[in-house]
Amino acid sequence: MNFQYKALLADGGEERGSIDALTAQEASRRLTKNGLLVLEVEEAPPPISATKRVRRTDVVRFLDELTTLLAAGITLVDALDAQSLNQVNSSLARIAGDINADIQRGGAFSDALEGAAAKLRLPPYLLQIARAGELTGRLAEALRRGVDLMQYEERLAGEIKGALTYPSILVVSGIAAVTLVFTLVVPKFAHLLDSDVDLHWMAQLVLSTGVFFNNYGLWVIVVGALALGLFGARLMRQESRQRWINRLAALPIIGPWLSESETGRWTSVLGSLLSSDVDIVRAMDLANAGVRIDVRRRKLESALQGVRAGASLSDALQQQQALTAVAYNVIRVGESSGQLPHMLGSLASLYEKNGRERMNRVLALTEPLAILLIGGTIGAIVIGIALAIAGASDIQL
Fold first, then answer.
1. Domain extents for the chain?
2. Neighbouring residues of 207: CB distance < 8 A, sequence distance ≥ 6
3. 165 has a pLDDT exceeding 60
4. Could you tell me if 261 and 357 are in contact, meaning their C-beta atoms sit under 8 angstroms apart?
């Protein structure tokens, strides 16, 4: 740990600095051996990050480290104290300190965590898992399941972003190339529009588009930027994101991929909650709340009503056609053997694998489609210019 000190020198001067030591007493002894008269030793504040925004990755790392400390036998208060001192992000360190202060005042960890849920943007299932872990005396084990779920969601989001990166680069590069052609090349042949040459319709279209872009290119860029900004702002709203997710889920190739991912997350959350001794009705309610596709969520909510009425989970899901035949059989085996949480975890792994394979197939189709679109656009421009030159030269192609 790092300590800041203030001491007197032999000549009467004052010295301030910092020193690494395990305790304040050790720091004082080391300073005294160096001939200093120690006046004050206090623990150095944690370093402050350039940004105080708490990111999801920071929260997952914080909970992962906290769970590791608890599993090693360190008390919750000491673990939170260490986290509040060692966090690079000052906002996260302050939140950890506030949670620790609530616990030292006699509050429950789950209640303190719930009070910080909005700042940490915690999923609802993590709070329920923490509460169940406290009741059963297995907080570290329960938190580990919750952290694993959050890491799974982070990994899934990262894979989706990674899959879309290369096609996005292709599209942006294609737009830049087309813009350069329209700006630098096409205007050189624009005078052919005012001549008496009988131009092919494709040549007229290319040259007219080039002239329009050359005259109003700045406005096109401004309007395009405003449209993208408006689209991004609308996506910040939950209702707009929900509509787009439902539209994508209805597509023939992307839809099954999203469905596999959603089902994998649902089974993983449900299995983790049941492993933490959360009752099945409450566990299904929390798991259903995380499903983003409306059609699938309605089926799962109807299945929940069946479970409330006394039906088994497998029968309720099969009656609503919420999952697949393999899933019904796996869940039925888990119910009969008393290993339902374990079987749900295995099912989640299966869905995760299938979802990754579907993502690779979508990516395999997206890349050539992007290349074909860009190449076709540039090819059409080149053909239009060639037809214009041929028309001007009276060459019959």
1. 2-43, 56-122, 152-397
2. 186, 189, 190, 192, 193, 199, 384, 385, 388
3. yes
4. no
| C-alpha 63 chain-centroid distance | 16
- The pLDDT of 313-334, averaged and rounded, is 89
Q: What is the mean pLDDT of the chain?
A: 82
Q: How much of the chain exceeds pLDDT 90, in percent?
A: 8
CATH domain 152-397 topology:
Receptor-associated Protein (1.20.81)
Average of per-residue pLDDT across 339-343: 90
The yes-or-no verdict on residue 90 having pLDDT over 80 is no
Q: Residues near 177 by Cβ (< 8 Å), separated by ≥ 6?
A: 374, 378
| Architecture of the domain whose range is 2-43 | Roll (3.10)
**Strand-by-strand arrangement of the 2-8 sheet:** 14-20, 2-8, 37-43
